[in-house]
């Protein structure tokens, strides 16, 4: 494995945070409220040297890394054809891929998928946050849904933050699509979505990672909020990458309860 690293001379003056964001769906690109919130969030951050993103839409074991300079993945249906023409061609991220592979534990096999581009859980929010597409972006698969293992992966990735790498977990704090009846962006949130959102917001405010990890057993609104857990799992990579997983982060979006198609927009930044 090569010893290439991100050049620290071009890294930000302060450590990059780690983020957990809700990525919505392609129509997020046309939502003036949420898109403005994501753009403002990016403006408040130090400029990343590179971005490592873990999306709910890539579940693959062993841990796998995306390729650079390949087409986007349009992993959705039923939306306006214009979304299938979206482009987001970012610079080569192979240096970051080498670093990520070298940081994993000896028993953590790392593969590279040489033809896989960014899926919509990555390119939709990043297209809003960094529209110039001039920052290298590497996507990493979710190799497990075990919170403890994901926390350890995030912890191993933590040193990248000192080299200017923005670590992003991209999911949705509630994602009970089978139980939604109204798919308008302004739809009223179901009770299970509001209850789970409130519970998670309180746990985040207290920095209670153990409580967040016990969601299947203790969270109100389950299993409706997450009939499958892939949109919640990226949170634990973010929490693992935090300087101190027990320190409350900043709930940058949705701190007072905001919903999109009835799903929670609550998003987190950890130092």
Explain how this protein is built.
With 271 residues, this protein is α/β, with parallel strands linked by helices. It has one domain (18-270): LigB-like (Protocatechuate 4,5-dioxygenase, Chain B), CATH 3.40.830.10. It is built from 8 helices and 10 strands. The strands form 3 sheets. A 6-stranded mixed β-sheet has the order 5-2-6-1-10-7, sandwiched between helices. It has a two-stranded parallel sheet with strand order 3-4. A two-stranded antiparallel sheet has the order 8-9. Strand 3, helix 2 and strand 4 form a beta-alpha-beta unit. Helix 4 (147-157) packs across helix 8. The protein is globular and about 45 Å long. It comes from Nocardioides bruguierae. This is Dioxygenase. GO terms for molecular function: ferrous iron binding; oxidoreductase activity, acting on single donors with incorporation of molecular oxygen, incorporation of two atoms of oxygen; zinc ion binding.
Content of β-strand: 15-25%
At CATH's second level, what is the architecture?
A: 3-Layer(aba) Sandwich
The residue-averaged pLDDT reads 94
Strand order of the largest sheet: 5-2-6-1-10-7
CATH superfamily heading:
LigB-like
Give the total of domains: 1
Helix content: 25-40%
Structural class: alpha/beta
Would you count the extended β strands for me? Answer: 10
The radius of gyration is 17 Å
Biggest pleated sheet: 6 strands, mixed
Count of DSSP H/I helices: 8
Cα end-to-end separation:
30 Å
């Amino acid at each position: 494995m090569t010893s290439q690293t991100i050049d620290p001379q071009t890294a930000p003056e302060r450590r990059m945070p780690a983020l957990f964001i809700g990525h919505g769906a392609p129509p997020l690109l046309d939502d003036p409220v949420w898109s403005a919130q994501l753009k403002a969030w990016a403006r408040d951050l130090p400029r990343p040297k590179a971005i490592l993103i873990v999306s709910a839409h890539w579940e693959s074991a062993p841990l796998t890394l995306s390729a650079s300079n390949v087409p986007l993945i349009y992993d959705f249906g039923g939306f306006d054809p214009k979304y299938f023409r979206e482009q987001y061609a970012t610079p080569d991220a192979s240096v970051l891929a080498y670093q990520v592979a070298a940081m994993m534990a000896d028993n953590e096999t790392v593969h590279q998928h040489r033809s896989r581009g960014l899926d919509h859980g990555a390119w939709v929010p990043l297209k809003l946050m960094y529209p110039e597409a001039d920052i290298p972006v590497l996507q990493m698969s979710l190799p497990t849904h075990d919170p403890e293992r994901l926390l350890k992966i995030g912890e191993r990735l933590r040193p990248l933050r000192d080299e200017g790498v923005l670590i992003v977990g991209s999911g949705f704090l509630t994602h009970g699509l089978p139980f939604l009846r109204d798919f308008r962006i302004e739809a009223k949130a179901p009770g299970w979505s509001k209850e789970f959102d409130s519970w998670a917001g309180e746990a985040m405010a207290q920095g209670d990672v153990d409580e967040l990890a016990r969601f299947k057993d203790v969270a109100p609104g389950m299993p409706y909020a997450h009939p499958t857990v892939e949109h919640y799992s990226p949170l634990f990579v973010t929490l693992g990458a935090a300087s101190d997983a027990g320190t409350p982060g900043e709930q940058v979006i949705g701190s007072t309860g905001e919903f999109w198609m009835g799903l929670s927009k609550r998003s987190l930044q950890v130092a």
